[in-house]
Amino acid sequence: MNVLIVYAHPEPRSLNGSLKDLAVSHLTSLGHEVRVSDLYAMNWKATADAGDFLKHPEGERLAYARASKHAFTGGTQSADVAAEQEKLLWADAVIFQFPMWWFSMPAILKGWVDRVFAYGFAYGVGAHGGERWGDRYGEGTLTGRRAMLSVTIGGRPPHYTDRGVNGALDDLLFPIQHGIIYYPGMEALPPFSLYMSDRLTPEQWPAVAEDYKARLDGLFTDAPIPFRRQNGGHYDTQQVLKPGLAVGTSGTRIHLLHAGEPEQAPLAAPRDIARGL
């Protein structure tokens, strides 16, 4: 299988660098082919601007989404963006390796998403109609692929729980796992999260390495996070979860399949959609 690692840390000798190197060596030993996008080493341009489009007229007002669509469909994206899109299409699984900085990913990685997930590639895909709002959240260009976050965190585990001061880790990662990974069709695996990362001692590393290798062993077999599919019949014509689903649940957890719920719920009949029922 093909695995792409998108790695975002400025120091090769960091813990993140060690986790990236471990993933490369272990996945290769399992027979997988691995490619790495080392964003700092690549001097990746994090800003989305007119330079991403080879034929954007100088001085013309930039509407980035529209320009992104024209460049993607017309083959006039900048070479670095097109190369990363090719890697994603090549990959069967993607690992995002990064430290949690200010409750999210580093800016260079967010800039990778902003530029690579172009209109027509990762969004703006598929037809709209009735309860269907295009091919997204479980469908789309990257359907059939898996992705996992490998995240180092400076804080302690209790800080990232439902009652912890920083909020539950699943909620903090929801915009990434649901909104970036799942939106264009990839299945999101539960994250590999390493807490108190700045306090890790050399003596603790072997146990961490074994835990990570176990997660890498399950990259293609572990159950993904059970997000609801947008076009699975769970959402109405306004993309609001239908009554009777996720009763007694609130927050981001309503977008997870609950016990006993079918992955595919019945869609409204065409005449009901037309009548607004």
UniProtKB/TrEMBL annotation:
It comes from the Bacteria. It comes from Myxococcus stipitatus (strain DSM 14675 / JCM 12634 / Mx s8). GO terms for cellular component: cytosol. Belongs to the NAD(P)H dehydrogenase (quinone) family. Residues 1-215 form the Flavodoxin-like fold domain. The keyword Oxidoreductase applies. Keywords: Oxidoreductase. Gene3D superfamilies: 3.40.50.360. InterPro entries: Flavodoxin_fold, Flavoprotein-like_sf, NAD(P)H_dehydrogenase_qn. The keyword Nucleus does not apply. This is NAD(P)H oxidoreductase. One of its GO terms (molecular function) is NAD(P)H dehydrogenase (quinone) activity. Pfam families: Flavodoxin_2. Signal peptide: none annotated.
